[in-house]
Amino acid sequence: MNIIFDGKESHEAIIERSNKATSRIVCEEKSLIIKGDNFLAMSSMMPDYKDKIDLVYIDPPFNTDQIFLVSDDRVSTISRSRNGKVAYSDVMTKDEYLKFMYERFVLIRELLSNKGSLYVHIDTKMGHYFKVMLDEIFGDDCFKNDITRIKSNPKNFDRKAYGNQKDMILFYTKTNSGIWNDIRLKCTNEEIAKRFSKVDSDGRRYTTIPLHAPGESSVSSPTGQPWRGMNPPQGRHWRTDPTEFDRLDSLNMIEWSSTGNPRIKKYADEHQGKKIQDIWSFKDPQYPVYPTEKNSDMLEQIILQSSEKGSYVMDCFAGSGSMLLAAQKHNRRFVGIDKSEMSIEIMRSRIENTDYSFIDLSSK
Ligand SMILES: C[S@@+](CC[C@H](N)C(=O)[O-])C[C@H]1O[C@@H](n2cnc3c(N)ncnc32)[C@H](O)[C@@H]1O
Description:
Elements: H1 11-19, E1 31-35, H2 38-49, E2 53-58, E3 66-70, E4 78-79, E5 85-90, H3 94-111, E6 112-122, H4 127-138, E7 143-150, E8 166-173, E9 184-185, H5 189-195, E10 198-199, E11 205-210, E12 212-214, E13 236-238, H6 243-250, E14 254-256, E15 262-267, E16 274-275, E17 279-281, H7 296-306, E18 312-315, H8 322-329, E19 333-338, H9 341-350, E20 356-360
Parallel strand pairs: 1-19, 1-20, 2-6, 2-18, 7-17, 18-19
Antiparallel strand pairs: 3-4, 3-5, 6-8, 7-8, 9-16, 10-11, 11-15, 12-13, 14-15
Helix pairs in contact: 2-3, 3-4, 7-8
Bound molecules: S-adenosylmethionine.
């Protein structure tokens, strides 16, 4: 299934156009800030950075038909009124916008390494077009998640529709071997007390789980064989080869009820934390330094999950540079691109003490 919009070009034609860039950004193995249009910037990076970027997060303009301004009197106050300095403009027809994003997605994929991931932050008006576009460019087998980001408290709109509290982050990998660090969230004390409600004679909190799980295994599989004369209940199979139960039992890791029902013990102090789910709650700063500045804890979570120390992390709609700061904090190299004078000024002032190359393509 392919998306159709005016002026759509093939991937080959987009890459060929990108190959015609006359500027070239040489890889010096350090972080980069580039001022200029991101199609040109990524084209100029292509000879040296193709297949080198491990993580791309973007938060592009959302096609809102607005001009985003920062008022002069209070730098941190974001104003959409006419009396302020332009941060960036978000005014395009829908077809122009889809073409603009499509060709950038094609270049991003070229720059991503084979273990690379893309996170696209977008609202629900445009996000579904992006899903179809990205399935086409990356392949739907490389679609990983449509993350719901709760961005605000409940709202009281006058509009005859439900309040809008969320936007979305589409997560893709370039291949099926994307970096995945399986980072976990720490349980709160209340969650620990609720999940691990039993306490053993050493004062350790624990809970128990059954030895079996849903689904029957094949007759020949060890997980369908009897263990100590017991079969798994109908419609279920042993969680593991029953010889493992012997080992657990010898370590006193199986609790037997008075009626002879065995359950596996799980200790709170061995718990690795909660798996991160696809609904995130991260509110953006109340006093942003730049319009639509994103939550830094959210960006750090993405970096820790999908990149490694030393990885190149790119944000080619970098705005205030929050993604670059998060990358720097976790010892990743960053590539930040933006065409807005104000964005570049703000991000450079925030990344003062880092050794990076600055490249100005704005006159090209
Ligand atoms: C929504 S803001 C990004 C905000 C950012 N995530 C943050 O946390 O501050 C989008 C940014 O994309 C930039 N932008 C829009 N079109 C661009 C283009 N063609 N090339 C480079 N930057 C562009 C705008 O100048 C703006 O700073």
